Description:
By secondary structure, this protein is mainly beta. 3% of the residues lie in helices and 54% in strands.
Amino acid sequence: MTVTYPIYLALTMLCSELTILADDCCLWTPGRVWISDPKFSEDGGYLAMKTTRRFGDALYRTVLVFDTRTWRPVKEIVLDQYYEVRNGPRAGLLEKRYAERAQRCGFAWMPQSLARLLYFTPEGKLYSILVTDNHAQPEIVWRGRVVFRVSISPDGKYAAVVARTENWEGVSCVILDISTRRVIKEHRTSMPGSPYPVIAFSHDGAYLAISDGELIDVFDLRAGKLSAEGLTDGDDHITGLAFTPDDRVLLALDFAGELRWWDWRKGKVLGSTLIQGISERAGIEVFRCAMDSYMVVWNSGLVTLYDLKRLKAVWSKSWNCSGCSIKPDSSVLAIATGTDGIVFDRIMLLNVLTGEPRQSRK
């Protein structure tokens, strides 16, 4: 398919009008639109992101899905909507509540499912929907008291849901069999609230790493028991987890900016490096390109690519960032960003190996 750039679209979506500008390296939504958490689908054919925008006195949070061949939106799902009270006597308290509420909705792509999403709402409901069918209705998969995160195993069999349930006052990681919608395990943590536990599946889908403050547990999904328990080498909470492509090493990033390489089966730290400026808005993504393995580490002000074999930085760029995603063919890195670090209104498309804006296809 031939696409002519730049693209200008003025669309009426579910909750308001939306203007979209696109070229080879940028997808921009000028106006009061906040973008975060971009995620490519398994085949790279779609890119979904969480948006927040105002229409009148109402704030809407949605999942907006784009076809990456044409950069036209194909689906919008409303996660949350509420009326904003401005300049009131308790405006500061309300802002804090809005920020907390924002963490109670999100999504993840379902592998092996032909463009199906799992998404959750502030009511604690987890839904499934097919984004390629305009008439598809959401199907409820599970319900807790509050959901904070969701991740899906690469084989599409399991969902890990960080949530509060009726069975535990603190925060748990609930492991679901997606096909039967049965709870396999409720792994309770000591975390009472934010920052919430982070989770990561191994690439073979056999293991799930779960943080508990500064501790890390690894659950064997096939055996139904812990393979590693209480891994720790610091006093700061974990904010990012990822397995290397061969699943032998577990990478853990903490709030102090320390990134550690764990031989998680032996419970030994193999190495570490310090990354500056870490906050709760940070993450890790690992991928393989040709015969080499790489890791993208991002936080609110910096994106860095590491060569995992040589344990060194390939490039590091100062980007205001609210989320990253690597296209499955390992060619493109999508970054949710903005010019001032406050309003994140665009997706930048970078060459993942150089960190430079994607080259023109003319």
